From TrEMBL:
<protein>
    <submittedName>
        <fullName>Lactate dehydrogenase</fullName>
    </submittedName>
</protein>
<dbReference type="InterPro" id="IPR015955">
    <property type="entry name" value="Lactate_DH/Glyco_Ohase_4_C"/>
</dbReference>
<feature type="domain" description="Lactate/malate dehydrogenase C-terminal">
    <location>
        <begin position="154"/>
        <end position="242"/>
    </location>
</feature>
<dbReference type="InterPro" id="IPR001236">
    <property type="entry name" value="Lactate/malate_DH_N"/>
</dbReference>
<keyword id="KW-0520">NAD</keyword>
<dbReference type="InterPro" id="IPR001557">
    <property type="entry name" value="L-lactate/malate_DH"/>
</dbReference>
<dbReference type="InterPro" id="IPR036291">
    <property type="entry name" value="NAD(P)-bd_dom_sf"/>
</dbReference>
<dbReference type="InterPro" id="IPR022383">
    <property type="entry name" value="Lactate/malate_DH_C"/>
</dbReference>
<dbReference type="Pfam" id="PF00056">
    <property type="entry name" value="Ldh_1_N"/>
</dbReference>
<feature type="domain" description="Lactate/malate dehydrogenase N-terminal">
    <location>
        <begin position="2"/>
        <end position="144"/>
    </location>
</feature>
<dbReference type="Pfam" id="PF02866">
    <property type="entry name" value="Ldh_1_C"/>
</dbReference>
<comment type="similarity">
    <text>Belongs to the LDH/MDH superfamily. LDH family.</text>
</comment>
<keyword id="KW-0560">Oxidoreductase</keyword>
Length: 356
């Protein structure tokens, strides 16, 4: 199987290339295509990146080649990680509208080229922000089931890690999903949390303790207040310490926010979640992950079959996602998901993404 990384020379793109090879997801008979921007600095840098990756991993590297035109992108799985990112630096405002304006053209350029020149079977994993806009643009051109945004899976892994960390166990013992919009408007689905090795009563008791009296009705305002408080910390180390005092779902939003703001960005965690999804597609079996997908009535929100991009648990296999895997949710979860879903559709219209 072949994988293409659009935006390979960016921070996230490089980390994905490294992890794909180091984790052994692409054997010597596979192909890794590094895609750079025609005329941009990445158009030159992809050639250098290719040599550097071969230098590092010659014994087990896949065949690595380069493309600098959207119409030359060829692979079974295409990872979209090109485009502008949110600025780093503490206290910098987050302007998603501006990001959407800049990146929409990049998304359209690649989506149009893949629709015109591709095999018709590629699965696209979207990393670039705003994830919801990119999913909308690619899904409308390539077909809904072949496009998965990885933001909900990254949010899910962060939520599981914060729960695991609070309990002093490893992340692989924690199950459960995050839905909604990637980032601040994620919806942590506490009702889906599972703890390996514990029976339902024990789990219920632990979740109650971790969560306290809170419901998702206060989640957005809690995140806002937490961000404000950590921004007032006397330094970055103090700000990271302050994060430890919050419940796991709030930590899952503000710790990566602070990581990005610190200037370190979140390239390795993002790459890990992306490579998970690539492996899931290459694996050949249906596996349940969370992802941003374009829904066409698969779930009901606000009493109507919902249409629009939303992060939900989905079964993913070699042809993309096939089914939404949501059992009955708690009332506060349904409500939060509905509010977020409406807000995403409004944003997509404002960003010219063409939500129905
Ligand atoms: N979904 C997530 O969880 C998540 C997490 C982190 C970053 N991101 C997003 O991923 C994207 C990349 O982040 P980064 O930190 O690697 O940014 P970066 O600035 O380091 O890299 C972006 C890369 O995209 C390339 N690029 C820009 N336009 C291009 C085009 N038309 N064709 C090919 N390449 C092009 C640039 O040359 C650069 O190499 C951003 O949109 C960022 O917001 C998403």
């Amino acid at each position: 199987m072949d994988v293409a990384i659009v935006g390979a020379t960016g921070d996230v793109g490089r980390a994905i290339c490294g992890q794909l090879i180091e984790r052994g997801e692409l054997g010597p008979t596979s192909r890794l295509q590094l895609v750079g921007r025609p005329g941009g600095s990445s158009g030159d840098a992809v050639h250098g990146l290719r040599v550097d990756l071969i230098d590092a991993h010659d014994e087990h590297a896949p065949h690595i080649d380069v493309a600098t035109r959207p119409e030359d992108v060829v692979a079974d799985v295409i990872v979209m990680t090109a485009g502008r990112t949110l600025p780093t630096g503490t206290g910098r405002p987050i302007d998603r509208d501006r990001l959407a304006e800049d990146n929409r053209l990049v998304f359209e350029q690649y989506a149009d080229a893949i629709a015109a020149h591709g095999s018709g079977h590629e699965v696209v994993i979207v990393v670039s922000n705003p994830v919801e806009l990119a999913v909308e643009v690619f899904a409308r051109r390539l077909g809904r089931h072949r496009v998965i945004g990885m933001g909900a899976w990254l949010d899910t892994l962060r939520f599981r890690r914060e729960i695991a960390n609070t309990l002093g166990i490893r992340r692989h013992r924690v199950g459960g999903f995050v839905a909604g919009q990637h980032g601040d408007r994620m919806v942590p689905l506490w009702s889906t949390v599972r703890l390996r090795g514990l029976d339902p009563d024990e789990r219920f008791e632990i979740v109650e303790r971790l969560r306290g009296e809170r419901t998702l009705a206060s989640f957005v305002s809690e995140v806002r207040a937490a961000k404000q408080r950590i921004s007032e910390a006397p330094g970055i180390a103090a700000a990271f310490s302050a994060v430890d005092s919050y419940p796991p779902d709030i930590q899952a939003v503000i710790r990566p926010y602070l990581t990005h703001q610190s200037g370190a960005k979140t390239a390795h965690g993002t790459a890990n979640a992306t490579v998970d999804l690539v492996r899931t597609v290459l694996d050949g079996r249906d596996i349940v992950v969370a992802g941003q997908v374009l829904l066409d009535g698969e779930i009901e929100l606000g009493g109507i079959p919902w249409r629009g991009v939303l992060g939900v648990p989905v079964a993913v296999g070699p042809d993309g996602w096939s089914r939404v895997m949501l059992d009955e949710l708690a009332p506060d979860e349904t409500r939060a998901l509905w509010e977020v879903a409406q807000s995403i559709n409004e944003s997509l219209v404002a960003w010219g993404g063409g939500a129905r």
